[in-house]
Design goal:
The complex is a heterodimer of chains A (168) and B (180). By secondary structure, chain A is mainly α. Chain A is 67% helix and 0% strand. Chain A is built from six helices and no strands. Chain B is mainly alpha-helical. The longest helix of chain B has 31 residues. In chain B, 43% of the residues are buried. Chain B contains six helices and no strands. The chains are: A mainly alpha (168), B mainly alpha (180). Chains A and B meet through helix 3 and helix 4 of A and helix 2, helix 3, helix 4 and helix 5 of B.
C-alpha cells in the first residue's frame, strides 16, 4: 500500500466534487449494480443500429457496476465521522474492491461492448473509457492520493457521461 | 487445503443479530435492481471451443480458478469486517448511509457475478468431467451469492450458502487443482 494520507487531508471536498461528475447524467441515482453475466454479444446479422443498441445495453450494465464501486469509495471517503484521518479500513477496503471491479468492467467493455461494426468515433470513446477505467482501478489498487485520483475522476466522468448520452 | 467460508463468516451472525436485521432493502436510492440474468438459476453451459489436451485445459482452469477465488474470498473478508463495524460505526445497519457495510455487500455482489462469468468461460469440453461438474456447482453458488448480496439478504442466508453451496465445490476444486 502506498500511504499518501497527507494528500487526503482537507481534500475530501475536492475529490467528492470530482466524483460528483461521474454519473451525473444518471440523475445522481446510486443503484447497486446488477451482477449477472453479460449477455451482449451482438450477432453478425444485426444492422448498425442494432449493433449500437446491443453495445449500449452492455455498456449501461457495465457502467452501473463501475459507478457502484466508485460510489462505495466515495461514501467511505466522505464519512463525516472519519474525515481528515487519511486512509482507513473502509476506504482501503472500498478501494481494493473498486480496483477489482474496475478491472472487470474494463475487460467487460473491451470484450462485450466494443465491436468492429460500431461507429469508429464511438469505438474511440469506448476505448478511452476502458483506458481510464483501468487507470482508475490501478490508482485505487495503489491507494493513490487525490492528486492522481481527482484528474482521473474528471476525465473518467467526462467520457462516461458522453457515452451515457450517446446511448440514450 | 484451503477451507472456504468457515472463518470468514465467523463474526457475521452476531453482529447482524445485534441490530435485528433479518432482511433489509434500503428504501431510498439503494433499492437493489436485480439483473435479469440472476433472477433464475440458469444452467451453467459448456463453452464451445476447439478441443485441447485435458491436462492443459485443467491447468488453464486451475490458474483462473485460483485468481477468481482470491477475489471472492477477499471481498467476503471485507464484507465480514464491515459487518463487525468499528468504533466509528459500532452498529451494523443497512440503512446507515455512512456505514460501509452496504457498500461492501454491493461490491461483493458484483465481484461474485464477474467471477462466475470468468469461470464459466473456462468450462470447455476438454475439462475433466468431475472438475467440470464441481465448477458448474461453484458457478451456480457464486451467482446465488451475488444475488443474495445484491438483495442485502440476511447474513444467516449468506452464511448458509457459503457453507453449503460455495465451500464444497470450491474445496473440491482446490484439492483437484493442487493434486495436479
Amino acid at each position: 500500500m502506498i500511504a499518501r494520507s497527507s494528500l487526503l487531508v482537507g481534500a475530501v471536498v475536492a475529490i467528492a466534487a470530482g466524483f460528483g461528475l461521474v454519473g451525473c447524467e444518471r440523475g445522481g441515482k446510486s443503484e447497486p449494480a446488477s451482477a449477472g453475466a453479460s449477455t451482449s454479444q451482438a450477432p453478425a446479422t444485426l444492422d448498425a443500429a442494432g449493433v449500437k443498441t446491443a453495445a449500449c445495453a452492455a455498456f449501461n450494465k457495465a457502467v452501473v457496476k463501475a459507478q457502484t464501486a466508485n460510489d462505495g469509495f466515495k461514501h467511505a471517503l466522505a464519512d463525516p465521522k472519519r474525515q481528515g484521518n487519511g486512509w482507513n479500513k473502509p476506504m482501503s477496503d472500498a478501494a481494493d474492491n473498486g480496483a477489482v471491479i474496475l478491472a472487470y468492467v474494463a475487460k467487460d467493455v473491451e470484450s462485450n461492448v466494443i465491436k468492429p461494426q460500431l461507429d469508429p468515433a464511438l469505438v474511440e470513446q469506448l476505448k478511452q473509457f476502458v483506458q481510464l477505467t483501468r487507470a482508475r482501478g490501478d490508482l485505487l489498487n495503489e491507494h493513490a492520493g487525490t492528486d492522481e485520483l481527482n484528474p482521473n475522476a474528471v476525465q473518467w466522468g467526462d467520457v462516461m457521461n458522453k457515452l451515457i448520452d450517446t446511448c440514450k | 487445503m484451503r477451507t472456504f467460508g468457515a472463518t470468514v463468516f465467523g463474526g457475521l451472525v452476531m453482529s447482524i443479530a445485534a441490530v435485528g436485521c433479518a432482511h433489509f432493502d434500503r428504501a431510498e436510492s439503494m433499492t437493489p435492481v436485480r439483473d435479469a440474468s440472476t433472477r433464475v438459476a440458469a444452467p451453467v453451459t459448456t463453452a464451445s471451443t476447439a478441443p485441447v489436451d485435458s491436462r492443459e485445459a485443467k491447468k488453464t482452469f486451475c490458474d483462473v480458478f485460483e485468481q477468481e477465488i482470491k477475489k471472492t474470498e477477499d471481498t467476503t473478508t471485507r464484507f465480514s469486517a464491515a459487518s463487525r463495524g468499528d468504533e466509528q460505526h459500532p452498529q451494523t445497519d443497512w440503512g446507515d448511509p455512512d456505514h460501509w457495510f452496504a457498500d461492501m455487500a454491493n461490491d461483493a455482489s458484483i465481484i461474485f457475478g464477474y467471477a462466475a462469468d470468468t469461470l464459466q468461460a473456462q468450462i470447455t469440453s476438454s475439462l475433466p468431467v468431475d472438475l467440470s461438474a464441481k465448477a458448474k456447482d461453484l458457478i451456480v453458488s457464486m451467482r446465488k451469492l451475488s444475488a443474495l448480496y445484491q438483495q442485502h439478504e440476511a447474513v444467516s442466508t449468506l452464511k448458509d450458502e457459503m457453507k453449503n453451496g460455495y465451500a464444497p465445490p470450491a474445496n473440491g476444486i482446490d484439492t483437484q487443482c493442487k493434486a495436479s
